[in-house]
UniProtKB/TrEMBL annotation:
It comes from Hyaloscypha variabilis (strain UAMH 11265 / GT02V1 / F) (Meliniomyces variabilis). GO terms for biological process: fungal-type cell wall organization. The chain crosses the membrane at residues 62-80, 155-175, 196-220, 226-249, 270-292. InterPro entries: SUR7/Rim9-like_fungi, SUR7_domain. The lineage of its organism: Eukaryota, Fungi, Dikarya, Ascomycota, Pezizomycotina. This is SUR7-domain-containing protein.
Length: 346
C-alpha cells in the first residue's frame, strides 16, 4: 500500500511528539514499513466493519420481508377461519363445498317443478348447504342464505344428520351406503384439518413479531428456521387435507345419480387457503436465507474479535472444551513437547 511523503512526515512527527520530542528515533525505512502495516490493518478492519454493517442491514431487510409475508399469510388464513360463519359480503361466498339438493325430489315436467319445490320445502329441505370450517349455512335459490349454524370447535360436516334433523317427523330419505361410510373418515380428517389451520395461524402471527430476535444470536436464527418450517408445514398440511377431503366428498356425492344431488367446490375459499400457504412457505424460505446471512455475520464478527485479541497480545480464543484432569493435562503437555509417555496400568 503506497504512502505519500507528506503523510509519512506527519506520522513521524506525531510519533516523535508522543515519544517525548525526538527520543528513540528509528530508521526511516522501518517507520515507513510500520506505517504501511498499520494502514493495511486499519483498512482490513474497516472492510470487516463494513461487511458486518452490510450483513446487518441485509438482515433487517429480510426480517421486514418475512414479517410482511406472514402478515399476508395471517390475513388469508383468517379469511379461511371466518369464512361462511355469517351471512355477510365476502363471508357468504367463502365456503369449502356447496351441496345442491333442490332436485332431490325429481319432477316429471317443468310444470311440476314449482309443486315439487313446495313439497320439498314443506318437508323441511333447503335448496343448498354451504360448508365452512366452523359451521354450515343453508338457504334457498330464490332467497339466498337464510340461516347459519352456530360456530363450534372441531366441527365437521355431517350432511346425513343435518338433513334428517330438518325433515318433518316421520319423513325419511334413503341415502346410499357409500355416503354413510365416508362420514367416519370425514369426521377424523375434519378434526385434523381444523387443528392444522388453527395452529398455522397462531404460529404465523407469532412469527410476525418474533422475527427480529434472530439479530441477537445465530442460534436464534437456526431455531427460527425450524419454527418457520413447522408453521409452513402446518399450513400446507391443512390446505392439502381440505383439498383432498372435499374433492373426494364431491366425487362421492355427485356419483350417486339416483339422488340428484349436486356439489361444487368454493373457489374463493381455496384461493384464500393456498395463498396463505404460499406466503407461509415464502416466509420460511426468507428465514432460511436469513440463517445463512446470520452465519456469515457470525464468522465476520468472530474474525474481528480474534484480530482484536491478537492486537492486545492475548491468545486466540478456542472453542469451549471440557476441562481435563491434571494427570491427563500433564500427559498432553509431555506429548506436545516430544516426550514419550508410557502408561502403566495396574
Amino acid at each position: 500500500m503506497a504512502i505519500t511523503d507528506f503523510e509519512f512526515l506527519r506520522f513521524r512527527k506525531k510519533k516523535q511528539a508522543q515519544n517525548g520530542g525526538g527520543e528513540g528515533v528509528v530508521n526511516s525505512t522501518e517507520e515507513r514499513e510500520k506505517v504501511v502495516r498499520d494502514e493495511a490493518a486499519a483498512a482490513i478492519a474497516n472492510v470487516e466493519v463494513d461487511l458486518i454493517l452490510l450483513l446487518t442491514r441485509k438482515q433487517w431487510r429480510l426480517i421486514r420481508i418475512s414479517s410482511f409475508l406472514y402478515v399476508l399469510s395471517c390475513i388469508f388464513l383468517l379469511l379461511v377461519e371466518i369464512g361462511n360463519t355469517h351471512n355477510k359480503p365476502v363471508l357468504r361466498d367463502s365456503y369449502f363445498l356447496k351441496i345442491d339438493v333442490s332436485d332431490i325430489l325429481p319432477s316429471t315436467s317443468p310444470a311440476d317443478a314449482q309443486l315439487v319445490n313446495s313439497i320439498a320445502r314443506s318437508l323441511g329441505i333447503h335448496d343448498f348447504y354451504q360448508v365452512g370450517l366452523w359451521n354450515f349455512c343453508e338457504g334457498y335459490d330464490d332467497e339466498g342464505i337464510t340461516d347459519c349454524s352456530k360456530p363450534q370447535n372441531l366441527w365437521w360436516f355431517n350432511p346425513v344428520a343435518i338433513i334428517m334433523s330438518e325433515l318433518l317427523y316421520g319423513a325419511t330419505i334413503a341415502l346410499p351406503s357409500e355416503i354413510t361410510t365416508i362420514l367416519k373418515l370425514i369426521h377424523i380428517v375434519s378434526n385434523l384439518m381444523f387443528s392444522f389451520f388453527l395452529l398455522s395461524i397462531l404460529t404465523s402471527f407469532l412469527l410476525i413479531f418474533l422475527s427480529p430476535l434472530v439479530l441477537l444470536s445465530v442460534w436464534y436464527s437456526y431455531h427460527f428456521v425450524t419454527f418457520a418450517f413447522i408453521s409452513a408445514l402446518l399450513t400446507f398440511a391443512g390446505s392439502t387435507t381440505a383439498t383432498v377431503m372435499y374433492v373426494i366428498f364431491q366425487k362421492v356425492i355427485t356419483s350417486q345419480k339416483e339422488l340428484n344431488i349436486g356439489a361444487k367446490l368454493g373457489p374463493r375459499m381455496f384461493v384464500f387457503m393456498w395463498l396463505g400457504t404460499v406466503f407461509s412457505i415464502a416466509g420460511w424460505a426468507v428465514h432460511l436465507h436469513l440463517a445463512i446471512v446470520s452465519r456469515k455475520k457470525h464468522h465476520a464478527t468472530k474474525k474481528d474479535r480474534e484480530k482484536k485479541r491478537e492486537e492486545e497480545g492475548k491468545s486466540p480464543r478456542r472453542c469451549p472444551q471440557l476441562s481435563l484432569p491434571a494427570f491427563w493435562r500433564r500427559r498432553e503437555a509431555r506429548r506436545s513437547a516430544g516426550e514419550v509417555v508410557i502408561v502403566v496400568e495396574d
